[in-house]
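seq:
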Amino acid sequence: MKAKFLIAILLFVLPSLSAQSVSKEQLKKLNDIVGSYYTELDNRVAIEEEKRKGKPQEEQLGWSYVVISPFIYKYACISYEIRGYIDPIIGKSVVIDREGNVVVSSGFDLTKNDKIASIGVSSFAPEFIYSDRSTKEETVYDAYLGKAEKNDSVRCSYFRGDCIPRYKRSYSDDGLNGIVDGNNGKVILPRKYHDVDMLCYGLFKVLNNEYRCALSDSNGVFLTDFIYDGIKSFDELYLTRETIMSEPSNGRAFAAMLKSKWGVIDNKGKVLVPLIFDDKYNYPQAGFWNGELAFVYGLVNNEGYVCDGKGNKVCGVGKDKKAYFWQNSNVVVGKIEGAISQIDTIYDAKGDVTDRLAVNKNLVWHFKDSKWTLKNGKGKKIAGPFDHYKFYRQGHVENVFVVGNGDKWGMIDNAGKILIPIEKLRVDFNGCGNVEVQENKEYSQIYSYEGKQLTEEKLANDFVAGTGLDFHRYGPKQPEARWFKNTEGKWGLCRLKDMKVIVPFVCDTYPGGMSSSALKFGMATAFYKGRWYFINELGEGLPDEAYQQNK
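struct:
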């Protein structure tokens, strides 16, 4: 029975794995296509430069380039362009699938007065848009669904922030908007609104033609009337990294504005926090605390307060102070300047002053006389006192802690054992299951939670390409690997779980912009010796010479 079950699992899993795998043969075909673009570009540039000798500067060539986008599940885009100092001269783009087949191509040559057609790559959704300016036709190539969708008077686009792309904005030439289900084309809201936008988790902000906002669910049912000047998701608002302990909203509450005053409503339209806060920062800063609302920073007369999910005040937040939420039990009020915590007061859920930050029932941090001490549930000292405990970067890691004395940092475990000596310039959890450590002014290293150094390369202190937001681009799938830079300015691709080098540190730059390609869906892009390449999850795809460094 078990054997049959395992076979069934394998039969189910293997096709999905094979669909994601890209062989050396496929890579060669793909990279030959990319190489042909470089060859064509070089030839065309040489021709154009010869033709334009002695011409005025505005007719001279400015620059030329080839760009490839990473595969967004099914498709990728390759494009090249020759530009003059004023306008583009020649351009060409092609969308290809993972087998190297051309799905659609476009191009223009202004030297021959060609009609312009172009392919645009969406910066926030998995789609390519083919536009023919002569016919004004537009075709959308959906990278998830793998189908072409012709749009005449009606067009569709994904919502920014839809991490599992499903819902689409529908809009027409008359400027009116609606919502459709991208899976089946079902109309959720008709095209009769001034604007629509996704807040989070299938809830939408709808703006009518009188510029008033209402909240709608994914069935097109309105949860509020059109009474608000603005509605924003707290997931949409940028919260400072120091609020990392806050829980996500899960669609339960939203910032709402009326007559230039902000407050908070829930997903049924009930007012949780009165709309009385000034919009000094154009929105209130807020977080979530154990699934309940916790208002951080208003401002009312440059002051705010923390409240519970019923709108009851827990504690005040003074002028130019901030509140940091600790799991489901405490609020820390104070200042964070750089890496050093300046704490004023710790409050419990009832608003009473306390000196405790409980990790779990067996571990508690105590803050007294500006010092941090780790104790067990019975109050027995485990480690400390330390000048600093980096609670605001702790996240939900329970067994290791970043601590510091003076301007030096290290890491201990839940038994008080020193895993990383307290002599480093910076120690931070990086959200990938390991720890970033700045060894000195010259370089940094990556360590495991056990305190083992995982990297041999000396990484530049600005070593990571992109930000954590890259993890959520193009769907919920986390990358298997990311690009890192060494102190010599060369980039390499490393597997995140153990920092194994997949692509050696020989690349000239990391894939930026639309090609910001951490390894996802079994593919990435790399820039080596002046040109782009596609690589697979094994790092294969670069010329053989690039890998000699690792041998």
